[in-house]
Design a protein that fits this description.
It is a single chain. The chain has 26 helices and 28 strands. By secondary structure, the chain is an alpha+beta fold. It has six domains: 134 residues, Beta-Lactamase (2-Layer Sandwich); 106 residues, Beta-Lactamase; 105 residues, 2-Layer Sandwich (Beta-Lactamase), CATH 3.30.450; 71 residues, no CATH class; 150 residues, Histidine kinase-like ATPase, C-terminal domain (Heat Shock Protein 90, 2-Layer Sandwich), CATH 3.30.565.10; 120 residues, Rossmann fold (3-Layer(aba) Sandwich), CATH 3.40.50.2300. Strands 17, 18, 19, 20, 21, 22 and 23 form a seven-stranded mixed sheet that branches. The longest helix has 53 residues. The chain is elongated.
Length: 807
């Protein structure tokens, strides 16, 4: 609807009376017609109460779409005018005789044959009076202001966009009228000064809202832009104290002076933003730097404790954004960068661009910083720099956050070149020390073995001396021979222990009855433990077999008993328990001795590691236990704590009893049914003589050779069906001899007599299962081997495992 009455924003249009129009027409009708036709404003003259068009200029016709108007009533000529209320205006002007003005009113044009369109117009409807003062018609005069209205709408939209952008971005706008002292503040500006009402504000509110600590600097900066020739920019950061809420806020303000035509400053306009969070972040960064400096000091002190390996007094600090641009870099880091790469970086530089002439270094820098910028926090030690200038650096990468989002990463770097070199020297020194300690332990072990062998040799030699001197005393000779056999078994066990430690002993795996084994060992256990230690075995009636090497299992249990004894120097109790666990058997040895610290427990299986005094232990006991369990697919577990004793648990595979183990001890009722023609080969004359005499004493024909070449000559001339050869001989060993001998005589039987521990070597020598007599052995073992393997009535002896009884 059009606006009623004159617009309060525009001065009223002067009335145009009928007498004036008539005067113009009578004075010079042609001149009036030209003015009417050429006028840029649209004009129309209505007469009578039906508002019949008597005149309409081209501008009016263009406005309404070039429709025929003259002589037609307005309601017929312009039906849309009636619908939009314009005829009501004409009726009111005609009836009341008062003019009506409309400003920026919209009118929908619906001309026939065209699409409807909207226009915006300013117009005035002036009543025409006759000489008697009666209204005879209405004169319409106006302008099409559609373009102006559209421009104003666009301007208003842009102003609204600006308002929303400033408010959405947290920007407040202000405008100071210096003459009146009044200030225009947007809502955001008011909030930054703690004012939430709509009351007018002035410069007084501004000054009273400043924080006392910032009042002087801020007021001086504002005064500097209010005087001619003063500052051209007002740019300050200050704190405000909220007038209505008392809150302290940090703001950043910028403004410029506005001058009139005479160069006088009338206003100052500008903006403010809230930087409270930024100030808090800056304080947090300062606090963080302080904390990091403290951590750095602690870190350096700790490093000096462990090796005095920290170099330098200043950390190198770099901060990067997500595009590898330096956000910050301290003096130490910049100087080191310049020393290495010849260019000094500064804030804003791109680190990858600075390293464009060093592609490999650039690639590593990008790789490390990419990890840090993705949020990973890590420490990296790496060598950087050009050839001849490289150093080792320890780099600590951390993420940099602001307002809850990750904005980059920072790095603390330490030059650890000297530390790395010292650590390398220390590692070499420790390796040399470990080697020296190992050699010392081996020396102690060898000394102990030599001592044991001397004792054994002394006993053997003594018995032989007695036999030589008292050969006629049959009872004494028999007793000395029996002692000699016992001593040789002890020597065999000693060599077996050494082979087990060397991890080269071929285990004789077979079912072992734990009840019988423990019954045989317990007298030795009690003797070893002494009277001050109480020994007890649980589940004595349990009879279960495990798959093991009996000798190695005996050694393992004896080692555990000895260790327990040494841990209970003041006496105590030792409990040995046997327990079934599915397909496994557990042997648990528990003492209530001193126990082990975590460090000792972690190294308890290391060879040569011992906490005992020099000469009291070689450090091989638990190593042998561990090796034995691994070789039989078992395991060992140790639980210990200082003052709480120690429990060692062996887990071994269950085995079914082997009836043949007992049959092996029974005499062969058929006797030695076959006589062999044996070739004995051994490079040791004493051993060769013993073997020759022993084989001949067992009823076989025998011929001897001192080495492999002589043996091949004998094979070419003598009738031989069995070769008994030493495995380890100079020039041609037993393996090579066996290959040549079998090439000459494929049906030849081969027996190796050797202390060599590896059964695979024997098998490889013959290409088939090898029969081995492990030294030392007795004549009975020799007899069973020759007749058990190759005789008419073989006994239950396994290839490559014919150990002497009790070993």
């Amino acid at each position: 609807m059009p606006t009623d009455g004159l617009s309060p924003l525009d001065p009223p249009t002067p009335e145009v009376g009928e007498s004036e129009v008539a005067r113009l027409m009578r004075g010079d009708p042609m001149q009036f017609a030209r003015l009417f036709q050429q006028a840029p404003s649209f004009m129309a003259l209505h007469s009578g109460p039906d508002h019949v068009f008597t005149m309409a200029n081209p501008a009016y016709l263009n406005l309404v779409g070039q429709r025929p108007l003259l002589g037609r009533a307005a309601r017929d000529a312009l039906p849309e005018a009636r619908e939009q209320g314009y005829l009501d205006i004409l009726d009111q002007v005609y009836r009341l005789g008062r003019p009506h003005a409309g400003t920026e009113v919209t009118y929908r044009i619906e001309a026939p044959g065209t699409s409807p369109r909207w226009v915006t117009v300013d117009f005035v409807c002036q009543p025409l009076l006759d000489e008697a003062g009666q209204v005879t018609g209405v004169f319409v005069l106006g302008s099409d202001v559609t373009a102006r209205a559209q421009a104003q709408d666009k301007l208003a939209a842009k102003e609204e966009q600006l308002r929303q952008a400033t408010e959405g971005g947290g920007v407040g706008v202000w405008d100071v009228d210096l003459a009146s002292g009044m200030i225009y503040w947007t809502t955001r500006t008011r909030e930054l000064f703690g004012i939430f009402s709509d009351r007018p504000v002035s410069l007084r509110d501004f000054y009273e809202g400043l924080h006392p600590a910032d009042f002087k600097a801020t007021s001086e900066a504002f005064a500097a832009v209010t005087v001619p020739g003063g500052a051209k920019l007002y740019n300050v950061e200050y704190r405000t104290v909220g007038k209505e809420d008392g809150h302290v806020r940090w703001v950043a303000a910028r403004g410029v002076p506005v001058m009139d035509a005479h160069g006088q400053i009338k206003r100052v306009v500008g903006s403010v933003i809230d930087i409270t969070q930024r100030k808090h972040d800056e304080q947090r960064i300062r606090d963080l730097n302080d904390a990091l400096e403290q951590k750095l000091s602690l870190y350096l002190a700790e490093r000096r404790l462990f090796g005095d390996l920290v170099e330098g007094t200043d950390a190198m600090v770099q901060v990067s954004d997500h595009h590898y641009n330096f956000m910050a870099i301290n003096h130490a880091s910049a100087s080191e960068f310049e020393r290495i790469f010849g260019v000094r970086p500064k804030v804003g530089d791109n680190m990858l661009v600075l390293l464009k002439d060093f592609p490999e270094q650039q690639r590593w820098v990008e790789t490390l910083w990419r990890r840090a910028l993705s949020g990973e926090e890590f420490t990296e030690v790496r060598e950087f720099g050009r050839e001849g200038r490289s150093r080792h650096y320890e780099m600590h990468f951390r993420s940099l956050h602001r307002d809850g989002r990750r904005i980059g990463a920072y790095q603390f770097v330490y030059d650890v070149t000297e530390r790395i070199e010292k650590e390398e020297r220390l590692a070499r020194t420790e390796a040399a020390l470990a080697q020296a300690q190992k050699m010392e332990a081996i020396g102690q072990l060898v000394g102990g073995i030599a001592h044991d062998f001397n004792n054994l040799l002394q006993a053997i030699r003594g018995n032989f001396d007695i036999i030589a001197r008292r050969a006629s005393d049959a009872e004494l000779v028999a007793r000395c021979a029996e002692k000699g056999q016992s001593i040789s078994e002890r020597a065999s066990k000693l060599t077996s222990q050494l082979l087990a430690f060397s991890r080269e002993h071929s285990f004789d795996l077979k079912p072992v009855s734990l009840r019988r084994l423990l019954q045989d060992l317990e007298p030795l256990f009690r003797t070893t433990l002494g009277a001050r230690i109480d020994y007890r075995r649980e589940a004595q009636s349990l009879d279960v077999c495990v798959l093991a090497d009996a000798v190695q299992l005996e050694m393992a249990l004896l080692n555990l008993v000895i260790n327990a004894r040494d841990a209970m120097s003041d006496g105590g109790r030792l409990v040995l328990a046997v327990e079934e666990d599915g397909n496994s058997v557990l042997i648990r040895v528990t003492d209530d001795g001193a126990g082990m610290t975590p460090d000792v427990l972690a190294r308890c299986f290391d060879p040569f590691f011992t906490t005992k005094a020099v000469g009291k232990g070689s450090g091989l006991g638990l190593s042998q236990v561990y090796g034995m369990c691994k070789r039989v697919d078992g395991s060992v577990d140790v639980q210990s704590a200082p003052g709480q004793g120690t429990t060692v648990t062996l887990r071994l595979r269950r085995a079914q009893p082997d009836p043949s183990a007992c049959d092996a001890e029974r005499p062969n009722p058929q006797g030695d049914a076959r006589r062999h023609h044996v070739l004995v080969v051994d490079d040791d004359a004493d051993v060769r003589d013993f073997l020759t005499d022993a084989v001949r004493a067992l009823g076989h024909d025998v011929v001897a050779a001192a080495d492999g070449r002589e043996a091949l000559r004998v094979l070419g001339t003598e009738r031989v069906d069995l070769l008994l050869a030493d495995f380890s001989m100079p020039q041609m060993d037993g393996a090579e001899l066996a290959r040549h001998a079998l090439a000459l005589r494929p049906d030849l039987k081969v027996v190796f007599a050797s202390g060599h521990p590896d059964a695979d070597a024997f098998h490889a020598a013959t290409g088939r299962e090898a029969v081995v007599l492990r030294k030392p052995f007795d004549i009975e073992t020799l007899r069973r081997t020759l007749n058990g393997q190759f005789g008419a009535a073989p006994e239950s002896l396994s290839p490559a495992s014919a150990d002497p009884p009790g070993t």
